[in-house]
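Run: sequence + fe (ii) ion -> complex structure.
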Amino acid sequence: MAFSDFFQFYCPTKLVFQPGISKDFSAELAHFSLTKVQVITDAMLVKVGLVAPIVEGLKNAGIEVVSIFDRVPPNSELKIIQECADEAIQKEVDGIIAIGGGSVIDTAKCVDILLTYGGDLVNDYSGAETLSGPLKPLIAIPTTSGTGSEVTHAAVILDASTHTKLSFVDRNLAPHMAILDPELTFGLPAKLTAATAMDALTHAIESMTSIQTNPISTALAMQVIPLIRQNILKAVLNGQDLEARSALMTAATLAGIAFDHSMVGVVHGMSHAAGGLAGIHHGLANSIFLPWGMDYNFEKCVETYAKVATLLGIKREGLSETDLARQGIESIKKLRAELKQACGMAENLSEAGVSQDLLEAITEGAVNDGTSFYNPREVVKEDLLPFVQKAFK
Amino acid sequence: MAVFESSERLQEVLGGFFQFLLTQEEMAKKLLASKMVIKFNYTDPALSITIDMTGSEGIITFNDTKKAEVEMSMKADVAHRFWMGNVNLVIALARREMVAKGPIPKILKLLPIIKPAYVLYPQYMKEKNLNIG
Ligand SMILES: [Fe+2]
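>> structure
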């Protein structure tokens, strides 16, 4: 890896890991002097009984839960954020507890902006480094192992009126604390387990090949790859496997810190486009596009892919650097086949129900996606289209 | 000491340079295709420059209150270093040397388009006898 001329590392999020800890983290809460909080979550998590024990724990810690906002949709939007923030402001909360996946945590970040500073979310704060100072305490409790939102300093929100995604990037957006309780993922369905873990694997690999990669994010990403390779199938086959669930949760958080510093590339570009155009799940899309995106970048990334291959468990002996790198990509395809057998996760766009008519538009979307700026190879429509076509079947 | 000694000087140099960029056919064509209104807010000295690229030709105004899709705020010194080709935009954003309001992907898309400007800026300064930095 070539050292870039500049890098910085800043992860202000306190991480606390322990199976079952979400029910009682009063020792950690004591540092925040919270009195009244809002819990932000989604209706499904309330329904399956994940939220109640956490709320009980907050109450036992002497914190009043004055609002439980459970209407966050899978892709959060401005209207929801405003409603949620209005409630938080009206109830005068002094902190936010986000319980959920990426959409819930991103929503909580934006609500925290409005709660702390007021104003208009889009006009005043969308963009990069627009906040003038810290936000009120935000504690993230992830219930999936994928997005890494519990440690990133970005939030992505849908503007339903214009069908565009708005991004908020600011060092102050990183949650103050993340409570990592792998037991919260016991009930995650097999397919979702597979898709979210593949999202985290993609974060790790793309963070290593991004033009903004750095030695610290790479150190984290290198830890992620074997953790996911060795545990993804175990968790898919047995959701209650605490060891595997713990590994995946830790890996997703590490991958979150890695890509938060290095950014991602063309795999995410294609996934963002396919998500917007065909509504395909982000993790599933990454799983489908990952080998083809790696293939697109191959010439620029042989050395890194060779390293990825060894981290995936491939023996180096007798193989040239290029062959080893190729084996790395093949090993990801093999992993996908195993996941398909284990839980029926789609291996290509056609199986995922994406129409062939959308392939050009997906390619164009990837070219225009913000991630293509960070991709090691320039993302050009004519060059990328054959790879999107390969991802179809 | 600041690179630009006054707002008038900043307007003359950067305003003039932006006007000059819009006469560069290739670049102007690509910039106009973005259909963006971009506003630069400078401090030390204070000045804002708005470039409206929504029409058939780019329009530059100063201290305009027109709503811009993208607003970039920075010290005038940083702007000077940027146009000299010495500032990586992404790093500048990460270090808060620049603040960007609006859709960041659209801003990043402009970077390859304005690349030739890094060569043109020092040339322009030389031709206009603007000895700065
Ligand atoms: Fe992702």
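>> summary
The domain at 7-124 of chain B is CATH 3.30.1050.10 (Nonspecific Lipid-transfer Protein; Chain A). The pocket of fe (ii) ion is lined by residues A 199, 203, 268, 282, 286 (CB under 6 Å).
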